[in-house]
Amino acid sequence: MKATRTAIPDLLIIEPEVFGDERGFFFESFNRRKFAELTGRDVDFVQDNHSRSTKNVLRGLHYQIQHPQAKLVRVVQGAILDVVVDIRRSSPTFGQHVAVELSAANKSMLWVPEGYAHGFVVLSDTAECLYKTTDYWHPEHERCIRWDDPALAIDWQLQAAPTISGKDAQGKTLAEAELLA
Predict the structure, then answer these.
(1) Would the pLDDT of 181 be above 90?
(2) Three-class SS of residue 101?
(3) Residue 180 pLDDT > 90, yes or no?
(4) 131 is catalytic
(5) Quick check: helix, strand or coil at residue 76?
(6) What CATH number labels 44-169?
(7) Which of the residues 50, 131, 138, 141 is marked catalytic?
């Protein structure tokens, strides 16, 4: 495994070592010891999530105001543009975002520590995402920042209007949102 820092140094692109031949491939998608060496954190993942979405579905930007979750995100079918926004008011990168293409083909993963809003849009006909979290989902603490907040100016690489949930349509702008310290 290797880790590459992004424009926001806490966000890491994790690339596994893939062993492939005519039969297919094999790789470790998570190894606690190696992950700790790469990130400097010994994490305890408590929940695994699996989502399937169709092209132009946009989910996010989600976070929990209490019980913040760190996430390790990967795609096992299709491709997404994964977007992460720093929502820590005290951070030097507050309000900045990183966008990374994750796909079944590139097998890259994105490490998203606590303190970030997370979302993605599906680039392929369908995509299946798996993500591990360090805390449980607490719907009463979940918040959403608008995907189209002009202050964030995120290029979602959309070719058409996205399909979003009713909950995501009610998201707040970064300026209005309840954020982390």
Answers:
(1) no
(2) strand
(3) no
(4) yes
(5) strand
(6) 2.60.120.10
(7) 131
- Amino acid at residue number 84: V
Full-prediction pTM beyond 0.85? yes
For residue 75, give the nearest of 44, 120, 37, 117 by alpha carbon: 120
Outline where the chain has alpha helix (H): 32-39, 166-169
| pLDDT tens-digit readout, 98-124 | 999 999 999 999 999 999 999 999 999
- Of the residues 50, 62, 67, 118, only one is catalytic, namely 62
Mean pLDDT of the chain: 96
Q: Count other Cβ atoms within 10 Å, centred on residue 11.
A: 21
Residue ranges of domains in the chain:
44-169
Please confirm, yes or no, whether 118 is among the known catalytic residues.
no
Q: Is 36 helix (H, G, I), strand (E, B) or coil?
A: helix
At 25, give phi and psi (nearest 5°). Answer: -145, 165
Do 83 and 154 contact (CB within 8 A), yes or no? yes
Q: Could you tell me the pLDDT band of residue 61, with boundaries at 50, 70 and 90?
A: very high
